[in-house]
Design goal:
The chain is α+β, with helices and mostly antiparallel strands. It contains nine helices and eleven strands. Strands 1, 2, 3, 4, 5 and 6 form a six-stranded antiparallel β-sheet that branches. The longest helix is centred in the N-terminal third of the chain and has 30 residues, at 13-42. It is globular.
Length: 374
Amino acid sequence: MMVLMSDQPDRSPNDSALRTRVLMGGAFLGALVAMTLSWIFSWVPESPQLVAQRQAEEKAEQVAKAREEAFRSPPGSCLNWTTVDASDVHRVSCDEEHLFEVVGLADLTPEYGPKAPLPEEERTWRELTKEYCGPLVEDYLDGPLDPEGKLTIGVLRPDEKQWTDGDRALHCGLQWVGPGGGLQVLTEPAKDIDQSNVWEPGTCLALVDKSVGDPVSCDSEHSYEIVATVDLSEEFDSYPSEDEQKEWLEPTCAELVEDYTGGKGVEELAEDGLILSWDTRSKESWKAGSKLVNCKVGATLEDQSGLAPVQGSVKDSKDKDDKKDDKKEDEKDGAEKDDQGDGADGSEDENGDDAEGGEPTDQPDSPGDQENGG
């Protein structure tokens, strides 16, 4: 008997279902792999510009948050920063170096409603600062603020976005601004600071447009060098007029500058084109408790249009004069030796007198009689 054989195996219904599931699973897996590969090959990394922009935005948000938290510190908090934009502003002890001391928060809402535009003029902001922060400062200090003193009112005001969002707060504080506009470092609480606008002896102040700027190295061109600090209250029990201050300060500063320079007096300074002057205090400053003044050395332009540049410390001028005298003595001794060698009878040469006399001619002309002023 012949048996017909088929090349296809027998299939039961269960085998057919299993095969269907396997085929469907393979199709799903293939689709998943294809989708994954598609995502991998279609993903493009951020460009350096986009990364930089995103990082800048994140940093700006962090800076804004840090500034907001810092300047919302309670009264009595002291703040310091080292960057130009104050991005690293942080709270410190008021006994440490700082640039700003918080005195309080002022609300402009009563004057500027929700739809009021942001004031644009600096003059308006100055007036608002004086009006709203002034009383807070006097309450904080338990006394008046010297209008000509070391401390001035500082303020952090809302920017345009904050203003649009309804922020009407002025963060009022105290700071020390130099004559050139730069913030100066404070190292004690405002209540403990003598408001007298004075500098430590040895400080040199920059020359800016024939006037006084912020502190600089005395090796660079400057307007004044501070040589002493004087307390007017040691001489006067009540406010002295400017003439009375001048009458007392003239000999007092003259004595102190000799101590500072190691013996160089007013006449010797004049030979170098320098004049001794001093500050005076107004009645308003005196009432606010400012009794200290500076003695200082500087120079004026020949046309009296302002201050002339000075370079180097007057402390060094005494050493320079001593070196010049030593050099002249050496030259004199050398000339005498040459004369003795050349002369048959060892008689004094006429040029010896010429070498001994005369002052250096590279010094500026004396300004003459100058009226010392504050």
